[in-house]
Design goal:
This protein is of the alpha+beta class. It is built from three helices and five strands; from the N terminus they run αβαββββα. It has a domain at 26-113: Beta-lactamase Inhibitory Protein, Chain:B, domain 1 (2-Layer Sandwich), CATH 3.30.1450. β4 and β5 form a beta hairpin. The protein is flat, with a radius of gyration of 28 Å. The N and C termini lie far apart (74 Å).
Length: 152
């Protein structure tokens, strides 16, 4: 191969190894968090500043009918065919009372946080109980070769 062709091959290989950067969620560089003040700002102010939350909590906070709004930003890099790697992350938690007033504002920067483990407990259910015999013999007599009988 000529030297020129080797340069093209080398360029293609190097371009394929260049990481692809993805941004998900709100843009923290454009948001001015000082506009949101605890005990002053309202739900509307938060939505005007940050937009709709990434997710909300459905559980009471501190035994009251307060809710938490979560805004999540994540920056990932993917190189070639490898799995994406989280490079930066910011989670903003805003606590709203039942009147829609901001009662708390927390920011968690970085990739720390709790690892949530799935529970091994099972919820008992009632109704159909399966067994090998029922699964094997359960359909006998339900179907017929006569198409008129199957229309019931």
């Amino acid at each position: 191969m000529k030297a020129r062709n080797w340069l093209w091959v080398l360029a293609i290989v190097l371009v394929g190894c260049y990481p692809t950067v993805n941004h998900r969620g709100f843009n923290p560089e454009e948001v001015k968090f000082d506009k949101i003040q605890v005990d002053v700002s309202t739900q509307e102010t938060v939505q005007d500043t940050l937009g709709s939350p990434s997710t909300t909590s459905l559980f009471p906070v501190e035994g009251k009918k307060w809710t938490n709004w979560y805004y999540v930003y994540r920056k990932t890099e993917t190189t070639s065919f490898f799995m994406p790697k989280v490079v930066d992350q910011l989670v903003v938690k805003i606590t709203l009372d039942d009147q829609g007033i901001v009662r708390g504002l927390e920011q968690q920067k970085g990739i720390q946080g709790e690892k949530i483990k799935a529970s091994s407990e099972r919820t008992p259910t009632t109704g159909y109980e399966s067994s090998v015999m029922r699964d094997v013999f359960g359909n006998f007599g339900k179907y017929s070769l006569d198409p008129k009988k199957n229309d019931k």
